[in-house]
Write a structure and sequence with these properties.
about 500 residues; mainly alpha; 4 domains; five-stranded parallel beta sheet; about 5% strand
Length: about 500
């Protein structure tokens, strides 16, 4: 899901998309017709969006709309970034302003918010509908009647942390009641403070968010799973907060808040070389040899057994892959399922055949995990497979399983057009033609008459003999459901498909 779709109106999303196009391409060579083609909309609509974008630019740059148009179309670099324009639009979004009001407002009420923004309750309900639907996936509810974010406090913190990071991205400090300089100074004094500037900035902003929630009496209370999984971990021993912050809080809150912030620091997926803190966490899991270590090493053993690659924890230690697997496994178990994270807003691309095979292998490992208390959460949470795939997709080059597509051809060898198809297949390095008697091929190229003889787990789609080689190549390369699959009740599979010839 696109992050902007949760908060911005359609007109604002179109302006943001157009600004992204201007920053990604040579603006001087773009015409309105080019923009219309890239945005997949009419010329007139595109021109209207361009006019509105120029008005925004004029307001930001303090120039006239005509001057703003020249700046947009000039070859020179833009005076502000895509992140800054997103922040400009977000700060004018009713949905984001409502969330910010609930976080930072003093005794917020819906009547006060609607009066300040000259809108009705029904308008507020309508403008927050996409966000409320999104939050339902994470055990959260955005209430308009009783203005509040309702749900487990750890889930609320991770949602707000992701929201404010994607919105502000370090451009400005978002919290009015807490000084950035004070938080940054206290953060640098922590033994667990990150030395990488971007990660430090992200943790400082999240710590500021935690301070705001604590100041308004919203506490993390239940950290039993954190205590169990990280018992005696030295990284969780040092205090994070000044005890004076909790003078009005229940007695168990200081411990719970300290443990939760330490958990937040250690759950972050990292791809830079391991730091001293990373190595200490890795050694802690290794010495503990508990469910976290067993899940990660079992997965590496599973991949190694199928691919023959050296995927031992020691071989991959410098890549952070084993530790990242442990981090995200802990996160899903502690949060009792899915939670809001940056990867929720990735725009997925169509995966290749080899990548679909990796997903199958990872899914097989999750499916066959022992039904322990730790593993049950991982087995029932669908996005665990997505996270594993994101972690291992960059390492496909280490996995040496057969990366060719087995194709069984059942066509009339005397047909001239069929010969053209066979030549096409024979010149593709990803294709391995198999005998007609071969069991379970990846793809069967056949005729409509012979398609009825295919097995029930094979997807059937029409192959046009008048030269539609592109569709066949996509099916071979991506291993996805064909574009014109016949409507039937048979299950579709990623790597089992049947192409039929001589049909229109």
């Amino acid at each position: 899901m696109e992050f902007e779709a949760l908060f911005l109106e359609k007109a604002d999303r179109q302006k943001f998309q157009m600004f992204q196009i201007f920053t990604a391409f040579n603006a001087e060579s773009l015409t309105v017709a080019d923009l219309a083609a890239r945005m997949d909309q009419s010329y007139q609509m595109t021109y209207n969006v361009f006019q509105e974008l120029a008005t925004d630019m004029g307001g930001i740059l303090k120039v006239t709309p005509a001057q703003a148009k020249k700046r947009l179309m000039a070859r020179a670099a833009f005076p502000f970034t895509v992140d800054e324009y997103r922040l400009y639009l977000m700060e004018r979004s009713i949905a984001f302003q409502f969330i910010d009001y609930l976080l930072q407002g003093n005794r917020p009420t819906t009547d006060h918010f609607t009066a300040e923004h000259f809108i009705s309750r029904s308008t507020l309900t309508r403008k927050t509908a996409p966000l409320r639907k999104f939050l339902q996936r994470y055990q959260l509810k955005l209430s308009v009647t009783q203005p509040a974010l309702l749900g487990p406090e750890p889930q609320i913190r991770l949602f707000l942390g992701t929201l404010y990071w994607l919105t502000y991205h370090g451009i400005r400090w978002p919290f009015v009641s807490i000084s950035e300089a004070t938080i940054a100074r206290e953060y640098r004094e922590l033994a667990s403070a990150r030395r990488e500037p971007l990660m430090a900035l992200q943790e400082i902003q999240f710590w500021g968010l935690c301070r705001v929630r604590i100041a308004h009496g919203n506490y993390v209370r239940d950290v039993q799973l954190i205590d169990e999984l990280f018992a005696d971990c030295p990284l969780f021993a040092a205090p994070s907060y000044d005890p004076k912050l909790f003078f009005n809080a229940p007695a168990d809150v200081p411990h719970a808040e300290q443990r939760f912030f330490c958990f937040l620091q250690q759950k972050t997926i990292i791809f830079t070389p391991p730091s001293r803190t990373d190595r200490a966490l890795y050694e802690f899991f290794k010495q503990q040899n508990g469910p976290v270590w067993q899940f990660a090493t079992g997965l590496l053993d599973h991949l190694r057994a199928l691919s023959g690659a050296n995927l031992s924890p020691e071989a991959l230690a410098q890549t952070q892959v084993p530790l990242n697997v442990m981090r995200f496994a802990c996160s899903f178990v502690i949060m009792n399922g899915d939670y809001v994270k940056l990867s929720d807003f990735f725009v997925p691309q169509e995966i290749t055949y080899q990548q679909s095979h990796l997903r199958d292998v990872l899914a097989d490992y999750l499916r066959n995990l022992p039904s322990t208390e730790f593993n049950r959460v991982l087995k029932r949470t669908p996005c665990v497979l997505d996270m594993l795939f994101y972690l291992f997709a960059p390492f496909l080059r280490y996995l040496h399983w057969d990366e060719t597509v087995a194709v069984k051809v059942q066509l009339d060898a005397n047909d001239f057009l069929n010969h053209a198809v066979l030549d096409f297949l024979d010149n593709l390095p990803i294709v391995r033609r198999v005998a007609a008697s071969a069991p379970a091929p990846d793809l069967v190229l056949t005729t409509p008459e012979d398609a009825a003889a295919t097995t029930r787990n094979e997807t059937i789609f029409d192959w046009h003999v008048d030269g539609d080689h592109h569709r066949l190549l996509r099916a071979l390369s991506h291993g996805v459901e064909p574009l014109s699959a016949k409507a039937d009740s048979r299950p579709h599979r990623h790597n089992k498909m049947t192409a039929t010839a001589n049909s229109r």
